[in-house]
Predict the structure.
Amino acid sequence: MTDTPLKLFNSLTRQLEEFQPIHEGEARVYSCGPTVYNYQHIGNMRAYIFADTLGRVLQWKGYKLTHVINVTDVGHLTSDADEGEDKMEKMAARENKSAWDIAKFYQEDFERDLARLNVQPKQHPRATEYVEAMIAWGERIAEKHCYELDSGLYFDVSTVADYGRLARAVTDDGEGRIDTVEGKRNQADFAIWRKTPAGETRQMEWDSPWGKGAPGWHLECSVMGEALLGFPFDIHTGGIDHREIHHPNEIAQNQAYCCTNGLDDARNSGARIWMHNNFLVERSGKMSKSAGEFLRLQLLVDKGYHPLAYRLMCQQAHYRSELEFSWEGLQAALTRLKRMVTIVERLRQSVSVEPMLRAAKRDRNSFMEGLNPSIRELVDDFENFVSDDLSTPPALVALERAINVAGAGTAWSGDALFAAIYMNEVLGLSLATLTRTDLRIRPKDAQLTEAEIEAELQRRKEARAAKDFATSDAIRDSLAAKGVEVMDGDPLGWEWRL
């Protein structure tokens, strides 16, 4: 049994690095979470599937995992820079609700989506729970690193070394996506505290040494990361869009707070490794929340797709690769998942893998030595793939090879089934519990119930048995007109789909 070192791509150094935990036997991970002013689109959710896969790999490797995904319920403006309205306040006004109610509703929806995607439970601290700590943080760094304007307290990026190294996008004119705020010393300077404008009252505002107002968006992640994981912690993740402004600003705050300097030592950034997943691209423009019926997980379910088909779709691409969303691609992922579930569900009826999983978790190497050598080789291949910067596409192929061996009915089918379920611990596709029936989701606009479909299919079988092919064809055509595709001779045994 191999014990392949885990190598991860560090966005700060732009190279693969072997994971070396800061605390022996532990892995501490912080992932930038959502701003809960609206539903999350599926591009947002790709980041949490990636982060969850990372956490599962660390657990597979034997580390005790502490994983934090923050919830932004204050401070995030309609631009990533220091301009525009607060997203929470804007949505509260639009829906005629309190900002607190908006945050509660959309956080609960986000957490439901995580559960449907089989993302393991994480800590979800809210920014508003840490405002006093943010004020204390600002007071600690203000004298050496900040200056005050009428609009708030600003961080002077020239006071820390290597500002913008993570983004590698700083020019002589500064970071291009940051708008000018009158009085700023440097274009890239950013708000630590934003004062409530004179004559206005915000729903979310607090007293501070710099006046009544609210924290800047970037501050919360620094404060919560330090409070919950300690500096430095092991890994910080986020979407690739965070690499350009949010994370460089977070790093600058961390440097100022810890009295550290250059980023040649990555730990001075607050985390030893920074990881970013690439974009999910959708050509019609429905990834934007301003598009009306934007692409969210519930829309996929409403169209008849199981959420784990989307998880699988994401894992079919490397997390650092751009992934294009299409309904055809999602259907292909669902079909692939069905093939795996069909075999595994049948075998689970006669083979219990739970005792094997418990034994493997107690002493993995000893347990693996008792498996058939060819099955051990499959598990080794899988480990090599996920240890190579979470290479899930070839890991999925190794999983399917194990499932195919299990389904072949050899003397080693039990070992192969165990291997498949064990690999699933990393991929999170629920193969130990998922059934074919679970994957058959009725679209919201379906005209027929399952019972009605099954009754029509039974009539069609009887017509075919009687060689009444005219009636058989008429039933098939009638079902097709109502959105039901009858799949004669389907090797999976799936006789229809909506």
